[in-house]
């Protein structure tokens, strides 16, 4: 099996495309199952965030796997496959490993170095584990990607420039409102993961008083209690907005929750940060006088916080080292079936010869037959030990797959999935 990652992000697609591609948490198990039901896809993990939708897959061939993944994404989003292709990035094998590690380290995020992606990747891996669509290859990839992300944050200053998309959004809001959010009245609509992150970030920024509303009142109340904010009924949204200077929208609604009618009669300036995909804010809201709307598209074009080159370089070095470490493991794992097949072949030969011996020498006692059997097996094990250990070592080096192929050829071994006729060396650059 080979690794394949296919996705769209703020780098390759606009918000209109991303909000059609986004996969709600409740839909992810069904999409995962649909992926592994495809002929070329053996394992799958789906990552869906406010600015990225991506499939990590173990596939039996590049072209077939890519076609299968694109077909599922097109079916889910309702976007024609030929139209969708223009918004997708594709990474294969080594490039897929490098991409997944860069994603986990925050190098591919809208706000470089943000740590929220680690939690999102962990949730995606958990969903695949619960749905049983992650096998040995993706288990190893996801576990290593999470480890790389933790290492990048622990060993470098990559996250000093900005902790999340929320931080970048608040920078835009502060600039719009005169450079300081301290003492400004805030409202967060939504009490999920992004809503909670927004409340935490607004609190650290000195925004207050702070109100929280959510369709599920108990969730809003628990979040408000944790941060000393005030929970307000969702039905009272117009009154809450009338008092706010900054509104953060972060719900999982498929329809706009903030419309022009909601803001009717409002007088003072307002900054609305729409961090939801699909968007929570109707397009006409941005046309109202005194109202500034910043969504994911706006953040993508106004990224202001970038880490120093030295910090980015340090993370890139970690990623490069970890990619090579993973590839060494992968090459070693790929030769294991060939070594097992060789040992099985040897055992079959020994068993056949022992049967012939039994037929020729029926006078041997059971003890004598056992002695001969043990001796033959020990001889075979000793003969195979050094070459199989050495081929594992060689296989872990760059280009090591040739040694496993040579072993299969020399001993005429039939190893399932050992050939990669449909493989290509590397597809796609950094997206």
From TrEMBL:
Looking up Pfam families in the UniProt record yields: GlutR_dimer, GlutR_N, Shikimate_DH
Q: Which residues form the active site?
A: 50 (nucleophile)
Task: Please give the catalytic activity noted in the UniProt record.
Answer: (S)-4-amino-5-oxopentanoate + tRNA(Glu) + NADP(+) = L-glutamyl-tRNA(Glu) + NADPH + H(+)
Provide the top EC class. oxidoreductase
User: Hey, which pathway is this one from?
Assistant: Porphyrin-containing compound metabolism; protoporphyrin-IX biosynthesis; 5-aminolevulinate from L-glutamyl-tRNA(Glu): step 1/2
Q: Where is this site: Important for activity?
A: 99
Q: Which residues bind substrate?
A: 49-52, 109, 114-116, 120
Q: Which keywords label this protein? A: NADP, Oxidoreductase, Porphyrin biosynthesis
Q: What is its EC number?
A: 1.2.1.70
Q: Which family does it belong to?
A: Belongs to the glutamyl-tRNA reductase family.
Protein name in the entry? Glutamyl-tRNA reductase
Highest lineage ranks of the organism? Answer: Bacteria, Bacillati, Actinomycetota, Actinomycetes, Micromonosporales
């Amino acid at each position: 099996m080979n690794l394949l990652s296919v996705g769209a992000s703020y780098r390759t697609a606009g918000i209109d495309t991303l909000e059609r591609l986004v996969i709600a948490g409740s839909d992810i198990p069904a999409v995962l199952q649909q992926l592994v039901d495809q002929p070329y896809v053996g394992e799958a993990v789906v990552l869906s965030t406010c600015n990225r939708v991506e499939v990590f897959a173990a596939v039996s061939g590049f072209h077939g796997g890519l076609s299968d993944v694109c077909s599922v994404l097109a079916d889910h989003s309702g976007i024609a496959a030929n139209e969708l292709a223009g918004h997708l990035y594709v990474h294969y094998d080594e490039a897929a490993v490098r991409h997944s590690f860069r994603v986990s380290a925050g190098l591919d995020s809208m706000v470089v170095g943000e740590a929220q992606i680690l939690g999102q990747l962990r949730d995606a891996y958990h969903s695949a584990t619960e749905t049983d669509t992650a096998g040995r290859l993706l288990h190893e990839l996801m576990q290593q990607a999470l480890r790389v992300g933790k290492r990048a944050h622990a060993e470098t200053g990559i996250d000093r420039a900005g902790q999340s998309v929320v931080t970048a959004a608040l920078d835009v809001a502060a600039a719009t409102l005169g450079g300081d959010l301290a003492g400004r009245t805030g409202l967060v609509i939504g009490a999920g993961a992004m809503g909670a992150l927004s409340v935490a970030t607004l609190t650290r920024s000195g925004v207050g008083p702070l109100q929280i509303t959510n369709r599920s009142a108990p969730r809003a109340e628990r979040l408000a209690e944790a941060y000393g904010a005030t929970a307000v009924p969702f039905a009272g949204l117009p009154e809450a907005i009338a008092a706010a200077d900054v509104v953060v929208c972060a719900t999982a609604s498929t329809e706009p929750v903030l419309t022009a009618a909601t803001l009717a009669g409002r007088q003072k300036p307002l900054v609305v940060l729409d961090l939801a995909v699909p968007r929570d804010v109707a397009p006409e809201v941005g046309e109202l006088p005194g109202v500034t709307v910043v969504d994911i598209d706006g953040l993508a074009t106004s990224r202001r916080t970038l880490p120093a080159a030295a910090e980015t370089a340090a993370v890139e070095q970690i990623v490069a080292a970890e990619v090579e470490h993973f590839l060494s493991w992968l090459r070693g794992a790929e030769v294991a079936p060939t070594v097992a097949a060789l040992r099985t072949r040897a055992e079959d030969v020994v068993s056949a010869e022992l049967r012939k011996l039994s037929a020729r020498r029926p006078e041997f006692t059971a003890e004598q037959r056992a002695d001969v059997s043990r001796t033959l097996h020990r001889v075979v094990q000793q003969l195979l030990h050094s070459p199989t250990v050495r081929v594992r070592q060689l296989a872990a080096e760059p280009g090591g797959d040739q040694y496993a192929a040579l072993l299969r050829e020399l001993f005429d071994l039939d190893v399932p999935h050992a050939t990669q006729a449909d493989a290509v060396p590397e597809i796609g650059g950094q997206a």
